[in-house]
Write a structure and sequence with these properties.
The structure holds 2 protein chains of 2 kinds. By secondary structure, chain A is α+β, with helices and mostly antiparallel strands. Chain A is built from 8 helices and 7 strands, in the order E-E-H-E-E-E-E-E-H-H-H-H-H-H-H. In chain A, helix 5 crosses helix 8. Chain A starts with a strand and ends with a helix. Chain B is α+β, with helices and mostly antiparallel strands. Chain B has a domain of 137 residues: Flavocytochrome C3, Chain A, domain 1. Chain B contains 17 helices and 19 strands. In chain B, the strands form 5 sheets. Chain B has a 5-stranded parallel sheet with strand order 5-2-1-9-17. Chain B has a 5-stranded antiparallel sheet with strand order 11-15-14-12-13. Chain B has a 4-stranded antiparallel sheet with strand order 16-10-18-19. Chains A and B meet through helix 1, helix 2 and helix 3 of A and helix 3, helix 5, helix 6, helix 11 and helix 12 of B. Bound molecules: flavin-adenine dinucleotide and FE2/S2 (inorganic) cluster.
């Protein structure tokens, strides 16, 4: 187990709409087995000991599934390792003496709450607009009365794996939410259960996405590159197609 | 305090039917007049909020995270049980019921478990209809696998992300209700007190975690679905915001806490790597379907695994339990791993690990198949340890994972405070002293989708509930006392960190109330916890103020509650001088080291009534009556 020390430049901001700035810290004797967030825990313990306000950042599962933890690390959402959430990044990805800049997601639709914490409730509203199959508890037929081919079900699962972290928005120069929205649309659109509402769903979700102030997609693929779950942008094309078909249907 | 379990009469198979028939109903037109406060948005809370919203109740849903979708349930990996018998391998509702009662070491209520097994089949239908992409076979039908402690294939799964997919299903149904106005969301709220008026639960105090404001919410019933208390051990597989706070504050307001000493230690977690460790990562139990557990036969054998020949390896689970082999239940697998390490045969740098080896499985079915089955778990392991499990065996050690104890509830999921209902991991109801793999998801969804809609209607339909507003003195009192506690935390201004206290408490809990418990050890813990609590209130540093996002204050409040709750857990463990399931008292074991129950003296649920911090709580006993399954010494040999 090796030990390194790193310099940190961390975004501090007291609250929404308040001015923010990068503040310098150092983290000494960092074990390379530590996770990135554990390194921040140690920095915070130092601050707390001195009675100073700890750096606010979010995390919960710390195993890459809840989607709470994203940070922009040296300009890249979730840092240097592909297919990884911030909580799964380890200090062995850094070298002794490195300077690491840590900032929150930046997007109009994700206002900063404090330091590294942002408000992602826009994502919940996009799901609320149509990211579901409408039926009430209790009325379901037997689970096996609807065979679904393995390929289709696996493809749906690839999209359903989205953790709603917002890395895609953070990476996009237009702060677009197309990858997030299309993942849900594709997950449900591929499955037979999702067919009855397929076209109303796409219209409602895309309209909500626009209403939240997310930007347009200019096909750069930055979102796919940083997605910790490696969700494919192929869903975006499908979302457009369905949206156009829905428009034709009126 | 009187414990009335309200178990319906009649044969076990018709109890739930009878209850549903005899329960009072609420007319659809009247439902929107009732406000239901649902705290927690994991599987239990989200499924309850969605179902009640659909039925027309006015639901308010609270959670700590920024989005309900991030509740701890999202992290469940392996699967969910259901007695569908799709594999035609001998499963039935009765067998799932039987396995669960036996798996819980005969410390669960038969009637509840039977209802759980009955509802399990509807849960799968419900989730498929929502679009949950369960794993399928080539013919397009649902796939199953077997899970620890079971000899039939009844576990449904979605890769290694079953909890995520089930939760997203429940969350999407709930968000549909949010958009329709049936459910109102209150994310980033932490419940800090329960408001009881005329003996009934009528509201809650929550802290808005962004503004710091203390809000009061009034309702006709309160549903707690706030999860388990595994993080009392500091290191556990639970999400870092998991806490006992809501349940503990309800306990202080009169809700009995049942069997707090029943905690589950999961056998396959990635071992601790250092002092900085903030949580432990579980590797799904499903891995034991293909992985073989072993340690070197020789003590202190430090050769790398590939240099240890077959003849010098001890596949101890296969050796000791030939009929279940690597698939023995969790408590048995964990205890055996500890024994191997205590015996000096542990592996890895710390000697606190055993191997989980896939070499044979890879030879048998090929790396591709293993990748398809467990790819994401292997990747996760690789990321954390920097080792490639396709090439070298995984190193595993047990860790705290689940808590079977919780607030006491009757058959209707109602606590000892009328109107306060408790769902999911937060209650004590269905798993006895040990939970079988893939049964927590089942219970959470059963409680939320299929039990509470009926039993809550019964409560509302049979209770007079005069209107109350948050101007009531009880709300003012609860808010003032919550405020006072916050003020005290902020005013200590000591120099010790909150995490430091959490770590110390966790250490005490793990050392004395962990995998093996003794009278002397538990008594030591009973002396140390109050000392640590006092030190906390004198020397903790909680920086920042209360009028904005202050994660230090949140953490401090939770640790403060754990410093009280930990004592109750230890008392319960001390009282129960038998071993059962996950509760292992060294004084009570069979000649070959298995848990030895004492049915004559301990066939009861221990429900504790709060008397004041540091004061001895009062024990109430709910006798367990077995009409169907005859308790025997559990054997997996
Ligand atoms: C890593 C891991 C893997 C698992 N795998 C499986 C598996 O394969 N199969 C299986 O059956 N089980 C599994 N389990 C167990 C299972 O996931 C949990 O028991 C179950 O999800 C608990 O669900 P719940 O709804 O009761 O609570 P949780 O999902 O824990 O939700 C708690 C909710 O309460 C809220 N809350 C908590 N306190 C407060 C408060 N004070 N104020 C406001 N809100 C609050 C939280 O915000 C959250 O929304 C696993 C557990 C872990 C840790
Ligand atoms: S903390 Fe859950 S994904 Fe990182």
């Amino acid at each position: 187990m090796a030990t390194i020390s790193v310099k940190l430049k961390i975004w501090r901001q007291d609250g929404p709409g308040k001015p923010g700035r990068l503040v310098d810290y150092t983290a000494d004797t960092v074990s390379t087995d530590m996770s990135f967030l554990e390194m921040l825990d140690v920095v915070n313990e130092g601050l707390i000991k001195k009675g100073e306000d700890a750096i606010a950042f979010e995390s919960d599962c710390r195993e890459g599934i809840c989607g709470a933890c994203g940070l922009v690390i040296n300009g890249v959402p979730n840092g240097p390792v592909r297919g990884t959430t911030t909580c799964q990044l380890h200090m062995r990805s850094f070298k002794h003496g490195d300077t690491i800049t840590i900032e929150p997601w930046r997007a109009k639709a994700f206002p900063v709450v404090k330091d590294l914490v942002v408000d992602r409730s826009a994502f919940d509203r996009i799901i609320g607009a149509g990211g579901y199959v409408s039926f009430n508890t209790g009325g379901a037929p037997d689970g096996n009365c609807l065979p679904i081919s393995k390929d289709v079900s696996e493809a749906a699962m690839d999209m359903a794996a989205c953790i709603g972290c917002g890395s895609c928005v953070a990476a996009c120069k237009n702060a677009a939410a197309h990858l997030f929205t299309s993942a849900k649309i594709t997950h449900l659109g591929l499955l037979p259960q999702g067919q009855p509402e397929r076209y109303t769903r796409v219209v409602r979700m895309v309209d909500q996405m626009d209403a939240e102030g997310f930007g347009n997609c200019s096909n750069e693929g930055e979102c796919e590159a940083v997605c910790p779950k490696e969700i494919s942008i192929s869903g975006i094309a499908r979302m457009y197609r369905d949206y156009q078909k829905a428009a034709l249907k009126g | 305090m009187k414990l009335d379990s309200k178990i319906p009469s009649g044969p076990v198979a018709s109890k739930w039917d009878r209850a549903r028939f005899e329960n009072k109903l609420v007319n659809p037109a009247n439902r929107r007049k009732f406000t239901i406060l649902v705290v927690g948005t994991g599987l239990a809370g989200a499924s309850a909020a969605a179902s009640l919203g659909e039925q027309g109740y006015n639901v308010k849903s609270f959670c700590i995270q920024d989005s309900p979708r991030r509740a701890h349930s999202i992290a469940a990996q392996g699967g969910i049980n259901a007695a569908k018998n799709y594999q035609n391998d001998g499963d039935s509702i009765y067998r799932l019921f039987y396995d669960t009662v036996k798996g819980g070491d005969y410390r669960a209520r038969e009637a509840n478990v039977y209802r759980l097994a009955q509802s399990s089949v509807s849960i799968i239908d419900q989730c498929v209809a929502q679009g949950v992409p369960f794993a399928r076979e080539y013919g397009g039908l649902l796939d199953n696998r077997s899970f620890g402690g079971s000899q039939v294939e009844r576990t449904f799964y979605a890769r290694g992300q079953t909890g995520q997919q089930l939760l997203l299903g429940a969350y999407s149904s709930m968000m549909r209700q949010v958009a329709d106005g049936g459910v109102t969301l209150y994310p980033r709220r932490e419940m800090l007190d329960l408001v009881v008026i005329d003996g009934k639960a009528r509201g809650i105090v929550v802290r808005n975690l962004i503004t710091g404001e203390l809000e009061t919410h009034a309702g006709d019933a309160v549903l707690l679905a706030t999860g388990g208390y595994g993080t009392v051990y500091y290191l556990s597989t639970n999400a870092v915001n998991s806490n006992v706070t809501a349940a503990w504050r309800a306990h202080k307001r009169g809700a009995a806490f049942a069997n707090p000493c029943y905690t589950q230690i999961h056998p396959t977690c990635i071992p601790v790597s250092g002092e900085h460790q903030s949580k432990l990562t579980l590797m799904s139990e499903s891995l034991r379907n293909d992985g073989r557990v072993w340690v070197p036969k020789k003590q202190g054998d430090s050769r790398p695994p590939e240099q240890i020949p077959e003849s010098e390896r001890d596949y101890y689970l296969e050796r000791k339990y030939p009929s279940f082999g690597n698939l023995v239940p969790r408590d048995v697998a964990s205890r055996n791993a500890k024994q191997a390490c205590d015996d000096g045969r542990g592996v890895g740098e710390s000697g606190l690990a055993v191997y989980l080896d896939f070499a044979d499985a890879i030879t048998r079915v090929g790396e591709d198949v293993i990748r398809m089955r467990y790819g994401n778990l292997f990747d996760m392991y690789n990321r954390i340890t920097d080792e490639d499990p396709y090439k070298v065996p995984m190193r595993m050690y047990p860790a705290i994972h689940y808590t079977m104890g919780g607030l006491w509830v009757d058959y209707n999921l109602q606590s000892t405070v009328p109107g306060l209902h408790v769902l999911g991991e937060a209650n004590f109801s269905d798993h006895g002293a040990n939970r079988l793999g893939a049964s927590a998801l089942m219970q959470g969804l059963c409680d939320g989708y299929f039990v509470i809609p009926y039993t809550l209607a019964h409560y509302l339909g049979s209770t007079t509930l005069p209107a109350v507003s948050t101007d009531h003195d009880a709300f003012k009192e609860a808010k003032a006392s919550t405020q006072a506690r916050i003020n005290t935390l902020l005013s200590v201004k000591g120099n010790q960190t909150i995490r430091g206290f959490h770590r110390k408490l966790g250490r005490i809990m793990w050392d004395y109330a962990g995998m093996a418990r003794t009278d002397a050890g538990l008594r030591t813990a009973l002396e140390e916890i109050p000392k640590l609590r006092e030190e906390f209130w004198n020397t903790v540093s909680v920086p920042g103020d209360q009028n904005n996002l202050n994660q230090s204050l949140e953490h401090a409040g939770r640790v403060a509650d754990y410093l009280e709750f930990g004592e109750l857990l230890v008392r319960d463990a001390l009282n129960r001088t038998e071993s059962c399931g996950g509760h292992f008292r060294e004084e009570s074991q069979t000649p070959d080291g298995e848990a030895q129950r004492d049915d004559e003296h301990f066939s009861y649920v221990a429900a504790w009534e709060f008397q004041g911090v540091g004061k001895e709580p009062v024990l109430h006993k709910e006798p367990l009556v077995f009409e169907e399954v005859h308790p025997t010494q559990r054997s997996y040999k």
